[in-house]
Amino acid sequence: IGDSDTLKGALELPEGVLYDMRQIDAAMAVVSKVDKQRLPAFTGSTTKRIGIVPKDSK
């Protein structure tokens, strides 16, 4: 949702998340520019889930 050149450049920053993923497998993340993209409404659960930090086992 924004300028495709800017978004693509931001996703492909050196030492970024995609950079790290591609060090493992270059085909793991592919970024493609499109002029228009339809994003359907989210239909999944919106129930809040809270994680609990485990107690120190020392």
Explain this structure to me?
Helices cover 28% and strands 0% of the residues. The longest helix is centred in the N-terminal third of the chain and has 8 residues, at 4-11. 0% of the residues are buried. It has a domain at 1-34. The chain has 58 residues and is mostly helical. It has helices at residues 4-11, 17-24.
Task: Please write out the topology.
Layout: H1 4-11, H2 17-24
Alpha plus pi helix count? 2
* Low-pLDDT residue intervals, each spanning 5 or more residues: none
Strand content: under 5%
Give the C-alpha Rg. 18 Å
What order do the helices and strands follow?
HH
Find the count of extended strands (DSSP E, 2+ residues): 0
Structural class: mainly alpha
Terminus-to-terminus distance: 47 Å
Residue share in helices?
A: 25-40%
Mean pLDDT over the full residue set:
87
Largest sheet descriptor: none
CA-based shape: flat
